Write the structure tokens for this entry.
Amino acid sequence: MYDQSGQQLEQIHDYNPGIAPDGRFWTQAFDPRSVKVNPGIASAIYQAQKLPMPDFHDFVNAVTGGPSVPGVVSFRVEWEPSRDRHHYRYAPNRWEGTFVQTNATCTWSGSTAETSFSTDTNDPTIFAEVGHEKSGVFFS
Amino acid sequence: MNSREIHSMPGESLLARPHYHGSVTRRQFLQAGAIALAAGLAPLDAVAKVRPAADPRPIWYGTQFLGPSGPLFHAQAPGYPIPDTDTDPATHDPATITDFNGFVGLAYVGGQGTHHDHGTGQTTTVYWEVDMRFMVGEYVAQDGHHNHGTFGFV
């Protein structure tokens, strides 16, 4: 979230689960029921409610091991059906995937002991895609 | 700043500014049926963080968000091909785990929201932007065993 009262946007919240000791970046296990995919038309829903999530205030603080405060977030992201299909393959990283580019909408809220936030509107999608990929030992 | 400029900028610079969209700047960093995923969505209050049988491996590549001499963070940014600009698939992987075979979703979305300060009682309109990703499927865990799991990037 960004304060837009000044000349420049100033980030005031950055909710993320942090970087795991093994290096996994902002990635955590979810209940399988939190994601639903319709691969045929590439639509999907990803949602969670009342998920504990620290607030690191801003990106640089988050990636440099800065402090955070406890928070809770809820969200729902929906990918619209599309057939704009693209295939990518990059052997040096041992991954390939087929992705459908589309639009997405998001409702999101987050709160700490001191503040709360909720989305009101969505601007046009910056970028969204859903696909299937194979990497590492599954890459051939 | 537009998307082209974002793409050509080093990670260090990307940290300093959000995406550009129309007249509004925004957050930077960032910026089948083979698997029968859940038959239906769970009641919202049933959706919560869980721990799978074993942890997946992070991708071994990524982005040096703090500059070329900084550490490597195991996520690609932006993790998608910028339309009409980015034709190199080297940075297109939206997943943050490897040894993975499954579905991935990525969404960069932003807009206007309402921020409330509980202490002062002040309510303001703010700009928000998110980079949300999920990974659902088979993976080889750090212990070498095959598993199925659902992972979210928030």
